[in-house]
């Protein structure tokens, strides 16, 4: 049960409704999860949703690698809602089911595709160690360039903020599957 009241469209103030409508009409296709909490502070919700739209849909990484970074972040921060929302998107983007399950249970996913391995390792190191090793950082910048390294760090940082929002307010999906740890 969430710790705060999740706002319903019919109860929104004019400022909240403006942000709600902007989120609902964007690429997310609806207002769910963290945004139902964030709408308690409409200006915050609006700024966060713009940043999220940029990082989720408009980086040089593409959907497959972005969704991989998101689920590694969700797992590392044990955020059930974020996992629930993005594990299926990762599968739709082409991440193998066995790799997704390995990430969920905190095992090595066995990536042999170098870009997937790099994104996984970078996100896992950043979430787990709060830093990235020089070797991983250098490999990411060689492969994705400076832009890709900045976007990847931004993506992990953004979804860390979303995970913390969901975890702090105890917002979980129905029937959440435990991570296995």
Characteristic terms for this protein:
mainly alpha, 2 domains, AhpD-like, 181 residues
3D architecture notes:
The chain is mainly α and 181 residues long. It has two domains: 9-57; 62-168, AhpD-like, CATH 1.20.1290. It is 66% helix and 0% strand. It starts with 13 loop residues before the first helix and ends in a 13-residue tail after the last helix. The relative contact order is 0.16.
Outline of the structure:
This protein has about 180 residues and is mainly alpha-helical.
Topology:
Elements: H1 14-25, H2 34-38, H3 42-57, H4 62-76, H5 80-92, H6 97-104, H7 114-129, H8 134-168
Q: So, CATH architecture of the largest domain?
A: Up-down Bundle
Radius of gyration: 16 Å
What is the arithmetic mean of pLDDT? 94
**Which series of helices and strands comes N to C?**
HHHHHHHH
- Largest sheet composition: none
Give the fraction of residues assigned to helices.
55-70%
Terminal residue distance: 22 Å
Q: How many H/I helices?
A: 8
Beta-strand content estimate: under 5%
**Number of domain units:** 2
CATH class of the largest domain: Mainly Alpha
Low-confidence stretches: none
CATH homologous superfamily grouping of the largest domain: AhpD-like
CATH topology of the largest domain: AhpD-like
- Report the strand count: 0
Helix/strand-derived category reads mainly alpha
Sum up the overall morphology in one term.
Answer: globular
